[in-house]
Write a structure and sequence with these properties.
- Helix content is about 85%, strand content about 0%.
- It has helices at about 5-25, 30-35, 40, 45-65, 70-90, 95-120, 125-155, 160-180, 190-195, 200-220, 225-234.
- The longest helix is centred in the middle third of the chain and has 29 residues, at about 95-120.
- The N and C termini lie far apart (about 55 Å).
- About 35% of the residues are buried.
């Protein structure tokens, strides 16, 4: 298989992985009703996902730095599948919180590893384009995955969405195992050295800007479904 198609394959899997993250905002009211909590309480499902993604991903990346990238991708997909199974099988809001934490870690590992894998698969001078394909797949999951998920949840049940993602996660696992060649990862950078970079005012400023941008976006996006449905009903 030509490497460009391997990059497109990773982009497609990134779309599915991103959908597992973003789709919850489009069905938050239905999830809340199914587990017997308020919509505001259900919003914590998005919070714990984000925290697990932000905190767990760098820890896992350091811990698995000696693994080749293909195995890291497989590990990520296995963790995502575990999160999907627990979402479907375990009852109650507390277990759903745990499932979102598992999914947050798996998603973070997959996306980070996909960027570096795509760059290595690309031809010299085209690494940026390969990485942008991964970003495109992940971003499209917000644009298309969320409304598609809402339609499916309205017609059937919100768990059907995660069941479908779980099936595609297995197919993605098989595809990665068969097509992505072993690739050595770079030497791990200790978390201490990464944190030292925060002393650089420019880096700190850029991170703060990103924090405020995504905070402003997430505040509205998290409760967009109940907001729109209540507006329409009025």
């Amino acid at each position: 298989m030509n490497n460009i198609w391997k990059i497109y394959m990773l982009s497609l899997i990134s779309f599915l992985v991103g959908t597992s993250q973003f789709v919850i905002s489009g069905i938050l009211d239905q999830v809340a009703a199914s587990v017997g909590v308020s919509v505001s309480a259900a919003g914590q499902l998005i919070t714990v996902f984000a925290l697990a993604n932000a905190i767990g991903t760098p820890i896992f990346m350091v811990g698995t730095a000696k693994m080749d990238r293909r195995n890291q991708l497989l590990l990520a997909l296995a963790i995502i599948f575990l999160g999907i199974v627990s979402t479907l099988a375990l009852p109650g809001f507390e277990f759903l919180i745990v499932s979102r934490i598992i999914l947050g870690i798996g998603t973070g590992i997959f996306v980070v590893t996909s960027y570096s894998t795509a760059a290595n698969l690309a031809l010299p001078g085209r690494q940026a384009g390969a990485m942008s394909n991964i970003a495109l797949g992940y971003s499209v999951s917000l644009v298309l995955g969320v409304p598609i998920g809402r339609v499916i949840a309205s017609a059937y049940d919100w768990k059907v969405i995660f069941g479908g993602i779980g099936i595609f996660a297995v197919l993605g696992f098989i595809a990665v195992a068969k097509t992505i060649p072993p690739m050595k990862s770079e030497a791990p950078i200790p978390l201490g050295k990464q944190l030292v970079m925060l002393k650089n005012p420019k880096i700190l400023f850029a991170l703060c800007v990103s924090l405020f941008v995504f905070t402003g976006y997430s505040v509205v996006n998290t409760y967009i479904a109940p907001l729109l449905t209540s507006t329409i009903s009025i």
